[in-house]
Each structure stands twice: as structure tokens, then as C-alpha cells.
Amino acid sequence: MVVHKRKKSSRMRGAKTTHGYGSKKKNRGAGNRGGKGMAGTGKRADQKKPTILQLYGNAYYGKHGFHIPPAIKHDIRPTNLEHLDLHLDHYVRQGLATKEGTTYTVDLEKLGFNKLLGKGIVTHKITIKALHVTARAASKIQKAGGTVEANGDH
């Protein structure tokens, strides 16, 4: 005949209700829990490795797979009108830009840039060919009597 055994939890509820943890302070808060889920299952030390390996295999440890970074729309290499206007004669001497009369013709791709920004003052008449030109840069060039050919958005 099976004898009904009293539950340990009822016996541990003493006058101080510490449930076997000594002081009440010792079993208080989430910090006492030691993590969530599979935390502390032998990743750092050697305690439970055989059990984990038996249950889950070698795939449990380490990093798995790879993370694809978000796609970059395009590589932006900008320059300002200020820089361009200052170095026009230098670019003509190097053969990276051409001068016909008072008009300079510049292809930004040849210079290693693909976007023109509007910082600076335009003192020359310039014809610009670029992938991206901001609205401010385009308006400054047109006010100086030049033209803009932009292939992409701005």
C-alpha cells in the first residue's frame, strides 16, 4: 500500500517563509534566476557540456549562419561647387576637363565624383555632366550661365 507523502513545499513554509533559502533577501529578484531559457548551459565552463552535446549535438555551441547587411543604394562620392570652381584650371591642365572659350566642360565621373553639392560660389560658366546634382547646385550653375546634365536623382 502506497503511503501519501506530504509535499516538501508545504514543509518548507516555516514561520519565516524562507522556503530553504535562509534570509528572504537571498531569493529575491530576477538577478537570482541566472538568465532565461538555455542560459548558463555550459557555454563558458565545462559543467554541463556532455549533457548539452548529447541532447542537442555540436550545433548548439557557437555562431551559425550569416547576416546580410542592408543593401546600399549606391556608392556616393560627393564634391562641392566650391572645390570644383577652385580647381577648374588644374583639371583642364590635367586633361580631366575642357575649356571652349569661357565655358568649362566637366565630367564628374572622370574626376572620381558622382554627386555635386551646392556649397560655394560659381564664378565660371560651367557645363556639368554628373550622375547626381542637387537642386541648389543646379540653380547656382544655371545662374552663372552654365548647364547641368544629371543622369540620376538628386
Q: What features would you describe in this structure?
A:
This protein is α/β, with parallel strands linked by helices and 154 residues long. It is 25% helix and 18% strand. The protein has a 4-stranded mixed sheet. It is built from 6 helices and 7 strands. The longest helix is centred in the C-terminal third of the chain and has 9 residues, at 135-143. The protein has helices at 8-12, 49-56, 81-86, 88-94, 108-111, 135-143; strands at residues 78-80, 97-100, 103-107, 115-117, 125-130, 132-133, 147-150. It is rod-shaped and about 115 Å long. The chain has a domain at 78-150: Ribosomal Protein L15, Chain: K, domain 2.
Task: Give a concise summary.
The chain has 154 residues and is of the alpha/beta class. It contains 6 helices and 7 strands, in the order H-H-E-H-H-E-E-H-E-E-E-H-E.
